[in-house]
């Protein structure tokens, strides 16, 4: 639970982006110009007395009431009696003015209540329950309980009879004080003696409610507070202002001059001069005790008066010196709101209650109170106002409906807001902004004018301190509030059980915090070893911590650990000692079916800022991969035509969802016209959603919606199967996307990824389109940067109009479990005349123009750079083919990959005249180029470096066939058009996975004549490169084509250029993940001497350029063959020695479980770069191998020296990842 109270250093707490002197200037101006603010300054002497060590609760409150006797203490909206002209019934209506009571007047009312209860034998240790709306009467009752040394049990307003009944049964109060609005609940709950407050005898509804309650046989005595005040006034006629007619008028239904009930006149408040209130009586019995240090004891309540007999003296207790009281006596039971389950009574001693009065900053305070007294934040904020001699104005309506009117009348100097209030202000701002904005001629100054009007007119223009609590506030909403207020919105954290404030603006408050620690939450991926900051559940020891729950010692083990720390249930990150950032409630994190973690409260706070959303309840469960919600539309939304409402709500939600991940977007929602309220049991007293109640009410309907959506999806697919033949291609493409992703009807210009599709969803989409349209639509086409839904439809149309195109199915048979080298024949891809004529073509020599495919890829960029450096000085050039919509975009895509370092970017700029870039796709016929462009390439290019490929270790062979096999065939076709051109082909060591008798320069078709097609790691990628090698081997043999194949293993970071690291590769993902989680296994390997096979990118690029262009066919295994015992374990050693906090976990399975959980718990923007998508590669320890798994004698001999991996290279990874903002150093 989050609370907020007074924060330290408010003058210096102006929001950082503004002028730090603005607040000081505002305060100085108010004190100089505003009489009310100046008169409300706290007395230095009173402040010193209140905060003096050793002062008891009674002494503190006595001091306050004596020091500020003639000041206004509380304000309440004036009401007047109105008579219905038809029915003749009298009711009261609220007027736009506040009346006040002074501290003396309020104290007199407290004395009246104390006298009556004292006479009834109620004293120290007795329990008094109170239910109703916060106001002067409630406050007077609460202060009377303090004076008697009794125990207050505030009841939640919207809890209902059953909840009240349970609390009353547990606490056994002597009296239940209840306002008229809750009188029916009290009667149904089986109340003991009732004291009815906020009662007006001239209101027919009040009289009817009282009469109905008195008719019940199962209710004890019922008295009204006006009756009690009248009795007190009669017995103290010479002393008490309660006997004055003006003061009594509000309670007994008559006005000055004796006007009859039903008059529309209203009474002004009396202004008597009375002695200060003495809050502790010598006649009071000794209070009940709470063994505070021990969380295992239960206090005894309900003690009788000292002699065991009822008191008969009805006069006020005297004001003699204070009786000795025990600060650890039980004073208050705060029952939790039930937002996470059954309410429990948190036990507050008199010392803890006094804390709220004692720790205050001496600053004038005039504020509006709307929080219930059943919530600790409401009680503490009210106590802090009174302790400073301020004026506490009470809201006119419990449901916050009067808040704007109230705050405009009060013009507070301090506002306490909860997120719901901020949402209301934001909605008002948006409505006013829309009203004033002329779409045809927008004025950029209107927004600031609206903010200024709200700041000065609505909020009164006097706010010098703004506090937010009770729940997290969304960052955009907080930014809006700070811009509106021109103040920092202080964020406070506390809890019912541990006290408040504990953390203010992310800084631990000492006192009251004595100690804290973070404990791991492995199931959610939070660990104290997390990088860059420890994360975990916050456990606290505070000076304001409760001793336990009332009569529930069985729960102590749940709320306290073995060392006495309170378990907050809140997840925080520790950025530095005493610098904690709240992340979430432990039970607010939901793991969806696909393994993604979502934070429900965060999403609700984001969606609540949508213009057409009044309230929202987000729902999900771990068997589903998407989220649903219940939405209460705003008033503006409800005015829309019903047929437009859902679409408008969805658009409103999407407008605030820019920073959310696809799985965080609501799949669907229910529309609920009835707001969530305290009265219908869906909100707590402070407006917090009660999730168990919301789930109870809407859960079944939402589960039915999940079932309906699943059925709709199946029905959509079935309908598509039946209708696709007769539908336009674009409609089929769009409906298939909707069926796969569960989205609304998508726009034709939408990209599949923008609709929430990932590579696995693209695979499902590909298969469905192929089935529906009888055209292979590869994943590479679906995820291409140019591929909108309309572009996918165009692709299908082109495929249908073209000659039968080669696919994996046409070469190997559909869904074949094995593929053969004999299937992969050049004649299946290239015209036989072109093949036959190729040997007769001239062979390009000493290349002056080099074509580089895939130059924007990781290795491709360094190959392009190396060739540029060689060719530019002698007037040569390189041509790069990049997938893009046009040549300019293609060039921009290429240049962007070099933009990590100014030196590198400058080098590319100098070499730019020798760089030509074309937009094309190697998997398309003739690269998708116009005929003239293809001919230009054929005539000009002398050497081809083919590094383009779809590198994906998850997709199957059939999906990689187009870009990796057909793309290679198109390269061969270019190599034998116009003239023969040598080819350098970038392959992979994965081709060796299914080879027998593998040799470095052997015939790949002989070493691996057949291949198994399955879903094992990188099977599809390895097979696609194998098929490409088969084609190239045949091309070299039949067409006298010089071909050099380079089979690389892991290509690591460039040793020189900052930021040049292959972020998506397995090694970088693993290293980043180890650094971010701070977790590594004791060893990545099975027992034995291990080695990691990888080489720096700069070395690989240079080696490939050096060894390219030789006649015939050559193949090199570009691997690290050294038996040097430099392994993944060595890299972890080096990182630890460099000071990186990494914990080694002895058990590999334990490490893997913790590692995966920690990765899944990361925000998506971080998680996307981790090893999580490829974690299956680490499911078991790797076999330890000395040196490379493949022979590399030919490569070693040809290139000479091969570098060992170094500590410096691993250190550069850390620097590079930090430069790319993937890691915090």
Automatic annotation (TrEMBL):
The keyword Nucleotide-binding applies. Residues 234-325 are annotated as: Disordered. One of its GO terms (cellular component) is membrane. SMART domains: PKS_PP. Keywords: ATP-binding, Nucleotide-binding, Phosphopantetheine, Phosphoprotein. It comes from the Bacteria. Residues 261-271 have a biased composition (Low complexity). This is Oxidoreductase. The lineage of its organism: Bacteria, Bacillati, Actinomycetota, Actinomycetes, Mycobacteriales.
